[in-house]
Every structure is written in C-alpha cells, then in structure tokens.
Specification:
Blueprint (H helix, E strand, L loop, with lengths): L2 H21 L6 H29 L1
Protein name: Signal transduction histidine kinase
Keywords: Membrane, Transmembrane, Transmembrane helix
Length: 59
Amino acid sequence: MSNGATIITFIILSFSLSLILIMKKDTLPASVKRPLALLALVMISFSFVLMIFSFLQQV
C-alpha cells in the first residue's frame, strides 16, 4: 500500500471513530467516554496534520 493510501485510510478510520462515538454517546459507559473521546480528538488532529503535510509535500 502506498503512503497516500495509508494516510487516506487513517483519515477515514479516525473520522469513522468520531462519528461512531457521537452516534453512540448515550450507550457508552461514563468510564469509557472520556478516553475514547480523547483518542478520537488526537486521531482527528493528527489526520489534519497529515493532510496539510501531504498537500505541502506535493508543492
């Protein structure tokens, strides 16, 4: 798998995790909500960094 495909896969997975957390926020136990939300926040932030890096790398 190429580098671009790996980045796209990571972006899709991080946004999917965030969407699932938003949709299932009422059914998750309180002890699991905060760590999963922090993990999703870190993954989405890293996804944006990877997107910016890949755009700058092409120039």
